[in-house]
Design brief:
5 strands; Rossmann fold; five-stranded parallel beta sheet; 220 residues; rod-shaped
Amino acid sequence: MLVVTSGKRNTEYTSLKQGLQKTYTDVYQCGFSELNHQTLTGFAVNGTLFGDPKLYLIADIDAELLPEIAADCIISQNCFLISCDSVLAGESKKLQSIADKTFKNHPSLSPNSFQFIKFTSVKAVEKISPFTIANYLQSRDRKKLWINLMQLRESNHEPEAIHGILFWKYKDIYAKASKDRIEKTNALKQMKTLIDLYHQLRRDGGDMWTMLEQFVLTLT
């Protein structure tokens, strides 16, 4: 049995390893630098010749070496959990091809005799200040305003808070535009629109982020 993982070892890897350790009594952990190709193949071919099936935990193997040992490990009664920092698409495709051929030549093998698992790292979302949208609002750049709105959404800010900041900013513009009738009228109009949209959302239901997006895209 061969289980290959690609990517930084994480909690998913730990759970996988712990699950396998419950199945096998004899567990051996080592880096590939401590082994060579012949030794590893020997572990696979010997199977249970010297006792119960064993679990080999092998870390930091070069993915390019996997094709050389894959078939022997897949058909082995021992289990090999091999972790790689990275397995490129071409390498994983080649590995899968070897596995398919091995399954074809050994129809009695369990479907779990080969597994390839790729761990994806979750990128931390940068937390940006919700008040940045106030600056973009005054610039009247709809594209930048929309991009900033999407960033705030991805940063897990509450849409109600963003709605409140937009309303506050228009109120601030209204107060400071005493000599600019057009600016004052527009600010008052947008404040009313925000209030109406809020009550409409509460009355009819819907998603506030969608409402904010539509509001931003209709600004002139």
